[in-house]
Design goal:
It is a single chain. The chain has 385 residues and is of the alpha/beta class. It is built from 8 helices and 16 strands. The chain has 2 domains: 263 residues, Aminopeptidase; 114 residues, Alpha-Beta Plaits, CATH 3.30.70.360. The strands form 4 sheets. An 8-stranded mixed beta sheet has the order 1-2-4-3-5-16-6-15, covered by helices on one side. Strands 10-12-8-13 form a 4-stranded antiparallel beta sheet, with helices on one face. A hairpin with a 6-residue loop joins strand 1 and strand 2. Helix 3 packs across helix 8. It is elongated, with a radius of gyration of 24 Å.
Length: 385
């Protein structure tokens, strides 16, 4: 399906995006590049009102079959690009260090192929291309797309994410949760301070904060099924300025992570309950800021099988491998709150490369053959669905 000419075009397209990375909700140039290319293919993309992100339908609505949506994310990260390649970032302190330039090129390529198939009468199911801004900004641009009606008429949604641990030419799939929830928690404690010789006349905020720092994570392990993986890890603890003065103010900040969707939904109420109980014992006034991030991506079984069948049809059964649940977050999960779907891990590691690489590092790069693999995967999925 992917001709050498199209493959070369998509690699050039990806490299252009890599040279010009844009942060979340600033992807104006990226959006325009995608829009122009889709219009050149005879399609009618719709740019979102904010000017970043777009939707594009292929094939007319079918009253009996909803659309298959293919999602890509557009934004880069605020990290420098130290690579020496000719397509390194030209924007200081910005880089496509998570592979979103690859995702965008793949969905664009799939759209170009599927548009040709639709004109030839070979596309049985209508498709919607979803180019989403701000995946890296909590709680994620997916919420903007849902609000804008991206899922109206959609029956199923698919996505891929680059994985430097998986060899190019392969995908990793998992039924059920494939990523985790990631939230932020901030506690601000206040009370009358005083001399450390008379703690009984004060609110000992250091003791109260220390108890919250230890007892909240411990209590969660006894209030929630341990298989849910609900945990709190603190990253900042600040209180006081002198050894003999009990402070009037203390702060704690950390992250809440969860492997299970149901436990994630219940987590805020439970966290608030435990904090209130501990703070009351020490007479501390506690202001709680629980910032929702994203829920886990929970892959639906039929969508996983569709990805497996599509990859097998193109590359053989050996090209599909099982993958573990990641502790990272992905806002693709918001779409799955409304329609079934699945996210696969796309292999981008060159054969024989033993270098350990990870996402969100400025020197992140891919084997660009992965672009054609992703296009073939999505094209086959559209034809099989």
């Amino acid at each position: 399906m992917v001709t050498p000419e199209l493959h070369a075009e998509l690699i050039a397209f990806r490299r252009d995006l890599h040279r010009h990375p844009e942060l979340g909700r600033q992807e104006f140039r990226t959006t325009e590049k995608v829009r122009v290319r889709l219009e050149q293919a005879g399609l009618s993309p719709r740019v979102l009102p904010a000017g970043t992100g777009l939707l594009c339908d292929i094939g007319p609505d079918d009253p009996e079959r909803g659309r298959l949506a293919l999602r890509a994310d557009l934004d880069a990260l605020p990290v420098p690009d130290p690579k020496t390649v000719e397509y390194r970032s030209t924007v200081e302190g910005r880089a496509h260090a998570c592979g979103h330039d690859v995702h965008t090129s793949i969905v664009l390529g799939a759209g170009l192929v599927l548009a040709d198939l639709a004109r030839a009468g070979k596309l049985r199911r209508p498709v919607r291309l979803v180019f989403q801004p701000a995946e890296e900004i909590m709680p994620g641009g997916a919420l903007d797309l849902v609000k804008a009606g991206a899922l109206n008429g959609v029956e199923r949604i698919l996505a891929v994410h680059c994985d430097p641990k998986v060899e190019v030419g392969k995908i990793g799939v998992r039924q059920g949760a494939i990523t985790s929830a990631a939230d932020k928690l901030k506690l601000v404690l206040d009370g009358p301070g005083g001399h450390s010789a008379r703690p009984h006349l004060t609110t000992d905020l250091v003791m109260a904060a220390a108890k919250l720092a230890t007892e909240l994570p411990a209590a969660l392990t006894r209030r929630v099924d341990p298989r849910s993986g609900l945990s709190i890890v603190w990253g900042r603890f600040q209180a006081g300025h002198a050894a003999n003065v009990i402070p009037q103010h203390a702060e704690l900040e950390g992250t809440v992570r969860c492997l299970d969707l149901a436990a994630w939904h219940d987590a805020p109420d439970l966290v608030h309950e435990i904090i209130d109980q501990v703070a009351t014992i020490y007479r501390a006034k506690c202001e709680i800021t629980y910032q929702r991030g994203v829920p886990p991506v929970v892959n639906e079984a039929l969508s996983v099988e569709l990805l497996r069948d599509a990859m097998t049809a193109r590359y053989g059964a050996h090209a599909v491998e099982d993958t573990e649940q990641s502790l990272g977050g992905e806002d693709f999960s918001w779409y799955l709150e409304h329609v079934p779907g699945a996210l696969a891990r796309l292999g981008v590691r060159s054969p024989g490369d033993t270098t350990k690489k990870d996402l969100h590092q400025g020197d992140f790069d891919v084997d660009e053959n992965a672009i054609a693999v992703g296009v073939e995967l999505f094209t086959a999925a559209a034809l099989l669905s």
